[in-house]
Amino acid sequence: MAVTTGIRTSATSAAVQRALTGQSRPVGEWIFQGLLFLSLLVALGMLAWLLSDVFIRSMPVWEQRGVVSFVTSNLSSDPEKAGIAQGLFGSVMLMVIVIVLIIPIGVAAAIYLEEYATDNWLTRFLNTTVRNLAGVPAVVYGLLGLGVFVAVMRNFTNSPLNLLVGGLTLSLVVLPIVIITAAEALRSVPRSIREAGFGVGATKWEVVRSHVLPYAAPGIFTGIILTIARAIGETAPLLLVGAAVAGFGQAASAGVVDKILGPYTALPTTIFSWARLPQSEFRALTAAAIVVLLVVVLLINAIAIILRNRYERRW
Amino acid sequence: MTASQQGAPLTIGDLRGSAGRRRRELVIRTLFFLAAGTAVLISALIVLTLVGEAVIFITKVDLSSLLSGSWQPRAGNYDMPSIIAGTFVVAVIAMLVATPLGLGAAIFLAEYASPRVRRTIKPILEILAAIPSVVLGFFTLTVLSPRVIDVICPGPTPLFNMAGAGVAVGILITPLVASIAEDAMYAVPSSLREASFGLGARKRSTSLRIVFPAAVSGIVAALIVGFSRAIGETMIVALAAGGVGGAVFNLNPCLPGQTMTAAMTALAVGSDQAGGGIASASLFFVGLLLFAMTLTLNLVSERFVRRIRSAY
Q1: Angstrom distance (rounded) from CA B235 to CA A272
Q2: Which of A144, A174, A187, A283 has the highest number of chain B CBs within 10 A, making it the mutation to test binding with B?
Q3: To the nearest whole angstrom, how far is the Cα of B195 from the nearest Cα of chain A?
Q4: Burial per residue of B132-171, b for 16 or more beta-carbon CB atoms within 10 angstroms, e otherwise
Q5: Is B17 on the interface with A (CB under 8 A)?
Q6: Which residue from A54, A147, A286 is facing B284, i.e. has the nearest CB?
């Protein structure tokens, strides 16, 4: 202000003054910011639409059947009796197999890549391989399971399309993601922490075990939890290694081992097979199964996000 | 240790620690190396399995059936152009949806949003990314195709169509595109923005003419990764694009079509896998083609990402 009033008023200085002190934002700025916000709104609006639509569609099942009946019934072609018990059992067992396999292998691989490997062609090759594996479509891992695990399993059992094969295949799908997230968590631990350990004469493994892993653990576990959430919803590879898309019977006496080595289905494959059925009654059942799957997936994600916010550390 | 206590010069051997400790180190190091090596083993198994079965398919199949005009594996028609065309129609529609939505969201989050808004919106985007694709497939079938695509497409539109599947795939990859593009824009040093503001530029010019060009490598990488994911997406297309019994060559998104991924699941779900017929070998041939395409795209995108890393 002071500057412009000092100068004799002229058209130029008036224009300059308006430009510098103008209160109103030009229309273009508003439109641009509005469009950016709109693109976010469309994405989030789709999410809200999806969640509310699926929930409303599933209401008849909860009202007429109740949660318990739906969750404890087996697959059936009769919509009055069909439920997701087998799908839930399959998904839980698959997750147990995946967790048991990927935590040790994934974390060990990440520790090697971040802590032990020196920067040479072999390390660069390993890193590139892991990143490329993460980009391979899940359905291709299904082919790998079909071509390797199912073929090997055929030598040992009459039903090679079993839970064990499904679990192994899913583990391959998510292993690269676990390695990448665990490596990121390890990388965020500053050098000085390690040097403190080396300074008092600790070996590499001692430093990793007592200094690096405790600080990286929250990050590693957040990554693993998010990976599990992704694995639960994974459908395509299971279809290729033979998760059942129709009903199947099991002897009442079948133990857990029999179930693991026998025919199986998982929650997402149940959803897939029901979604393809033409009867309108199955629309509500599909929506109900989706609600159960979403509750599980979103709950796991929420745990991971809370864990991350709670333990996030800035060095 | 005993040597140093007696006043004799300290040797390397004294500093090394006990033999048992060194042996333990070596064992652990080897175990970790083997764990990292599984990645190479898995890659090798993928390539060997796919190539092995694909070669069987190529040698057994009548080569003219690869260009027979329709994909009907049970009838012995393995027309590759039909399913490749379907794949690209769906992926292009997905990109038409995900590019404006993903980049718009990325610019908003990186340049406009306050830290508080970022903290609330990013987890919601992560939730969108966490929705299993089979769920989006059902949503396409029950909502998107009958209520949205039916209005956009001219004339009577079949419930199973590639446009609906493409839009849903686009929504699925939007969070992925947004997060990679946002990372790239976030990495642009703020000194560039400040220089632009210092010259009197407004926020829009700074975002579009300074930050966007500076981050363009990362943005291109985001789009390539998104495209690669769209090509490999399976469950939405398997449920909503149609073509379960087969498909003919078709580029009209308002009609049913078959993609490479959906062709694979349709074959696997419908066929008795115990029999190792020529139709089941065709799975691996399609899989090899898909693997080669996504691998190429991912390698190209990595090039672009490395460029932005080296710049700042």
Answers
A1: 8
A2: A144
A3: 18
A4: bbbbbbbbbbbbbbeeebbeebeeebeebbbbbbbbbbbb
A5: yes
A6: A147
Asked whether residue A160 falls in the same domain as residue A57, the answer is no
Whether residues A161 and A258 share a domain: the answer is yes
**Dihedral over alpha carbons A75, A77, A81, A84 (to 10 degrees):** 20
| Closest alpha carbon to A41 in A33, B168, B89, A309 | A33
For residue range B54-97, list pLDDT tens digits in order.
Answer: 999 999 888 888 888 888 887 788 889 999 999 999 999 999 99
Are A58 and A293 within 8 A, CB to CB? Answer: no
A15 touches chain B (CB under 8 A): no
Q: What residues of chain A lie within 8 A of the CB of B290, using their CB?
A: 137, 139-140
Range of the domain at B261: 64-311
Q: Is B268's CB within 8 Å of A39's CB?
A: no
Question: What is the span of the domain harbouring residue A86?
Answer: 67-311
Secondary structure, 3-state, chain B = CHHHHCCCCCCHHHHCCCHHHHHHHHHHHHHHHHHHHHHHHHHHHHHHHHHHHHHHHHHHCCHHHHHCCEEEHHHCEECHHHHHHHHHHHHHHHHHHHHHHHHHHHHHHHHHCCHHHHHHHHHHHHHHHHCCHHHHHHHHHHHHHHHHHHHHCCCCCCCCCHHHHHHHHHHHHHHHHHHHHHHHHHCCCHHHHHHHHHCCCCHHHHHHHHHHHHCHHHHHHHHHHHHHHHHHCCHHHHHHCCCCCCEECCCCCCCCCCCHHHHHHHHHHHCCCCCCCHHHHHHHHHHHHHHHHHHHHHHHHHHHHHHHHHHC
Q: Which residues 54-83 of A are in CB contact (within 8 Å) with B?
A: 54, 57
Residue B18 sits in the same domain as residue B110: no
Is the CB of residue A40 less than 8 Å away from at least one CB of chain B? yes
Q: How confident is the model at residue B305 (pLDDT cuts 50, 70, 90)?
A: confident
pLDDT digit string, tens, across residues A258-297: 777 778 889 999 999 899 888 888 899 999 999 999 999 9
